[in-house]
Write a structure and sequence with these properties.
It is a single chain. Helix content is about 30%, strand content about 25%. By secondary structure, it is of the alpha/beta class. The protein has a single domain (about 10-214), classed as 3-Layer(aba) Sandwich (Rossmann fold). Strands 1-3-4-2-5-6-7 form a 7-stranded mixed beta sheet. Necessary for normal cell division and for the maintenance of normal septation. GO terms for molecular function: GTP binding; metal ion binding.
Length: about 210
């Protein structure tokens, strides 16, 4: 794997909304790698995307859980240093509907599950899935079941613990340990993030850029 030039950090220079889809034929054309964001409703997927891209209105956020009802594609342009020279790379960010929202009708949940599963199993561009979990609470049954399903499919999933500004730094290690033990992973495999403070943004960018350099 290629290494970043140590003198400069990668960053997003531009991001744009492309399309909302529920079927494969609606996905945008192109061969850019894809990174998908999934988690329980109201865990902060859209806020994380906006934070990473430094574009407050890019992915629409809402206080109402279950608001995202389609697969939303964004094209994100990165600037990074590679082998002592500056390079530009493009990538798709994919914002998926949240799971586990009890007030969503059963037929709607089945519809979401169908097109989300089809996306995960059919997208040839998918390089990383960030599963978001609220750091304040232990993973819920839907988090556990979804994580297990992703791993059984051999999909490249990584955990991002969101809303890290909502707990004290002294409790963060404890909460990350609970998430790790519940999901059967190591705490070091978990990224943290706060859309409010921006904490963890650089680490998340570094992880994304390693995908671009593969």
């Amino acid at each position: 794997m290629s290494e970043l030039h140590p003198a400069q950090k990668p960053d997003v220079i531009r991001a744009e909304y492309l399309i909302s889809a529920v079927r494969q034929e609606q996905y945008p054309p192109g061969d850019e790698p894809e990174i998908a964001f999934i988690g329980r409703s109201n865990v902060g997927k859209s806020s994380l995307i906006n934070s990473v891209c430094r574009h407050r209105g890019l992915a629409l956020t809402s206080a109402t859980p279950g608001k995202t009802q389609t697969i939303n594609f964004f094209r994100v342009f990165f600037k990074l240093s590679h082998n002592n020279s500056e390079a530009r790379r493009q990538i798709f960010f994919v914002d998926l509907p949240g799971y586990g929202y009890a007030k969503t009708g059963r037929s709607t949940r089945r519809q979401w599950a169908k097109f989300i599963e089809e996306y995960f199993l059919q997208s040839s561009r998918l390089k990383r899935i960030y599963q978001l979990i609220d750091i304040r609470h232990p993973p819920m049954e839907s988090d556990i079941l979804f994580h297990q399903w992703l791993r059984r499919q051999g999909l490249p999933v990584k955990i991002v613990a969101t809303k890290s500004d909502k707990i004290t730094r002294s409790r963060m290690k404890e909460h990350m340990g609970v998430i790790a033990r519940t999901l059967g992973i190591e705490p070091e495999q978990i990224l943290i993030h706060s859309a409010l403070s921006g904490a963890g943004r650089d680490e998340l960018l570094d992880d994304i850029v390693q995908i671009l350099l593969q």
